[in-house]
Amino acid sequence: MGNVADSVAVKEGLRAAVAALNALFLTDADLERVGLDAVPGEAVDVLERKSELRLERLAVWSRLEAQVAAGKARDAAEYAELAEAMTPPEATGSERAFVEMSTVAEVAGVLTIAEGAAAAFISQSRKVCAMPAVAGALAAGAMSWRHAVIVADETDCLAPESAEALVAHFFDPDAPHRARGSEPGDLVPSQFRGKVRSWRERTYPDSVQERHIKCVADRRMEYRPDADGMAWINLHLPGDTACAIWNKTTAIARGLQGPDETRTLSQLRPDVAAALLLGAHTGTADPARHDDGQEPGKTADAHGTGTHGTGIQGTGIQGTDPYAVELSRIPAPKADVLVTIPIFTMLGSTDEPADLDGYGPIPAAMARQLVANGASSFYRVLVDPRDGAPLEIGRTSYRLTEAMKRWIRMRDGHCTFPGCTNPSTDNDTDHLTAWHHHGTTGVSNLAQLCPKHHRLKHNSGWTPTPATTTEPPGWTSQAATTQPNTPTHNHPTGHPERHVFPTCTVRAPHSLKPSLLREGLTS
Questions:
Q1: Of 279, 246, 280, 283, which Cα lies nearest the Cα of 265?
Q2: Position 406 in a domain
């Protein structure tokens, strides 16, 4: 049951946010009347000041929204606890189940949501309210309800003491090894979830493999009709398999792009996937006939009726069918993925998770299997066990530009624009200070940008702040708002108990057998 201090904190936070909003609305009303700054006689740009006020109000609305969520969560959790407290001790299991069903139905009716959503909300509310530091951050408006739910979800599989350690790591300012970098509320929810999950997997790796085995057994394919003649196909697969499918599809889609191709990359990916699954023409059959047995000049449509034309030579576009893909004409580029592996995981001395670029932590056994099988699209990256810094990047080319690109991918992890999580395989390596403005080609002047934000950088007032060799750039918005960087911090890796290291040097790669170093680590 919540205490009085928590309720007071929620109410005080709400009052402060409402007062701040009221002050901003009054300032806006003054601008409407006189168009002058508070300093007598000094004119201001009314439109610019009004736009600034809108951004300030958005920030307050966001804080107020979090504080309202904290109040809703506390009331939902306390209502469920009171319903349990009013249940007679001698009630049977079935009677208690009906009490719970009634509780869920009451909350669903009040909030006008489905009972399934209400049950989930009550469960999440009870978990969040059981973690005072998380509930306090939410009540203060320091982060959103989605951030709080992420903590509840990611601690669900942990023992109580482990869950407390995770919460302290991210929310306790006095924790001995508190999370570095941005505060939870300064990260978009997907970035925060990745950061929490990565720490959890590396700190408590014992159950990762067991949970992975269970999830592999639950793999499935789902079909869901959608509106406007569309539908969804979802595949739930092991991370390395899903990553490989995504990269192959993206590589083929990029190969299709050209001056005669009007489809975007987002449109090409599903077209390519459909072509691969439905057996598109691969160029191996009799040139007088297509693989599907259709006469020249026709290709089978989605229903096998063969009504579409032969297409445009060299483009992969099949006649009037907007979805057709000619796979035999695609100069598909090679897609590569970084797999960051702690050196002792590589040697089998520990089972600490590795990190799959664009996905996150993967079980040690999966990482070792990727290396052992010689997966040509995966580059193996060894890291120093003391501080998680990269020791060596595997490569197939000695050209400096390729090595630098991979280094930037390791440092940034995703597009560096605020809030963007576009994975590294889809991004451009951009000069922060342009070459024609005397920018240098060095790691501290390079950063990842997805195509959309790359174009925005060159066509708006958004400007990057300087990067370093270990951290990506921050950004200054068109409205002069500073957005801090969101570095992908390296985690010190675990040591097997039988290894003792000097504090001055680590020469792990050079101490390996030459054959292992050559075949498994530097390919």
A1: 246
A2: no
